Amino acid sequence: MNFWVLLQGFSLGATMIIPIGAQNAYVLNQGIKRNHHLTTATICSVMDVFFISLGIFGGGALLSQNETLLTVVTLGGIAFLTFYGWLSLRSALQSSDEQESQPQKLARGRRAVILGALAVTVLNPHLYLDTVVILGSIGGQFEGSDRLAFALGTMTASFVWFYGLSIGAAKLAPVLSKPKTKKTIDLIVASMMFIIAFALAKSLYTQWVN
């Protein structure tokens, strides 16, 4: 197995995963709450592995060439990102007293956490574009063991990042969970969700008018 190809896959995978998005925001929040955060990291990592495999080993062309499917995924993503951004904005605008008076909302059951992790993954159009289309098209250029090495590199990046983010957030929870810090994080997350949703909507509108 070619180590340099594996390293290339790891580097490119990290580049695609690290920028803040719905998945990272969700993993970060669950880590701060220490609420099934490792389960969240596992689900996001495993789902990434699934879609990376789908893209690199044959599914990338299906999504990139099917405009209807890509449009449906994008519309679903816009709706989800807008909703997630609204939830983050609402949380940021809550007073400290309101947040402290609703402790039951901070600890969600395992099932709810799992469903949330699946939602931020499956309803995230960037996931399909990054893993299936972009990584799939690049990985598809390799042959034999090099393609496998590239895939393993990108998959490793997912596990390292999501577990690192989850564990790091849990360790820093006493600092990150302070009202002012949490409000800042929520505002940043809300802003990013709205920006991404707007960019996707603009891109989709441009495709329609052209």
From TrEMBL:
One of its GO terms (cellular component) is plasma membrane. It comes from the Bacteria. It is a multi-pass membrane protein. The keyword Cell membrane applies. Pfam families: LysE. InterPro entries: LeuE-type. Keywords: Cell membrane, Membrane, Transmembrane, Transmembrane helix. The chain crosses the membrane at residues 6-28, 40-63, 69-89, 110-128, 148-173, 185-205. The keyword Zinc-finger does not apply. Its main location: membrane. GO terms for molecular function: amino acid transmembrane transporter activity. It is found in: Cell membrane. This is L-lysine exporter family protein LysE/ArgO. It comes from Vibrio diazotrophicus.
